Amino acid sequence: MAEVRGTFDPKFDSVREQLEKNLDVGDDVGASVAVFYRGEPVVDIWGGYQDVEKTIEWQSDTLVNVWSTTKTMTFLVALMLADRGELDFHEQVATYWPEFAAGGKSSIEVRHVMGHTAGLSGFGERIEPEDLADWDRCVGILARQEPWWTPGSASGYHALTQGYLVGEIVRRITGTTIGHFFKSEVADVLGADFYIGLPESEEDRVSMVIAPPPLDIANVPHDSITFRTFSSPPLDATTPQHRWWRAAEIPAANGHGNARSVAQVQQIIANRGEANGHRFYSEKTGESIFETQANGVDLALGTETHFGMGYGLSSSTVPIGPRACYWGGYGGSLIAMDQDSGLTVAYMMNLMRGSLTDDTRGATLALCAALSSLG
Hints:
- With 375 residues, the protein is α+β, with helices and mostly antiparallel strands.
- It contains twelve helices and 13 strands.
- The strands form four sheets. Strands 1-3-2-13-12-11 form a six-stranded antiparallel beta sheet, sandwiched between helices. Strands 5-4-6 form a three-stranded mixed beta sheet.
- Strand 9 and strand 10 form a beta hairpin.
């Protein structure tokens, strides 16, 4: 039997049992799960190994690249700036970032960027993976290019570009990078062990993700939104093995943390703007999370997706509560929050699955937590 360590309320023992099962049958190599219920930590567990050879045990403070779960941290920053009156989701992006108006983009609003409807789901110029560490180059490309579809008409998952778009808006408003803003205004306030741009001092705690086979898009039409989104640069799950990736600020994809730290931060959403006695935004500002920005088949993912202001909302493919939201990362990481139940569930792991959307490990753990909260 796999050893699952940490602490948990006996009421939520099914969550521990599920993680233990995942580790026993090989669905996970190393992972952590955290649950906050009505502002209190009720599950903080971990188990397995940091490496595929299973020689280094996963520890309480092990960090891992959580991929697009990082996006939820950028959404929170945007909510905070909106609450301060410094950012308006219904204002044109060019108001904050004048160069962005090029290429016929003057009418694109911040909400289009938040909801993946801006028509900029990929880079219009060919770039290599290492170019993702060059902030000025990435935002310069996005500022110059034309939208790939009519902004606001449909979503097309902005897999990597959303982080640069939101991040540059934040930089223009605050004068600092989104990684630094997040650290000083959120992570340090809550004592959350999460980084957008990993300091070298934390390197010895990192579990490298175990990459799945590359996404097969060779037979996807080259003029399709899917191909254009995921081909420049090619999505390569081995990239986090490089220090340049971990050190850079790639706010849509390279956050490093664990279930505890992700849940510590995102419980703010479940608690309607508050955590640990700190208010990060008003309840009124938080209502914008549930404003539908797109609801239908996503042009890049090819699946039905319901986007609110950044976060994913309930849909036929992800049936969650009316006051619940979520997002996850390439390979399987997941964070879900429900305001009605006050529940926050986070699952972070190193063994990646190949699909961007078809992985039930996190959803099963979230269901266990939800059912336990009712008992």
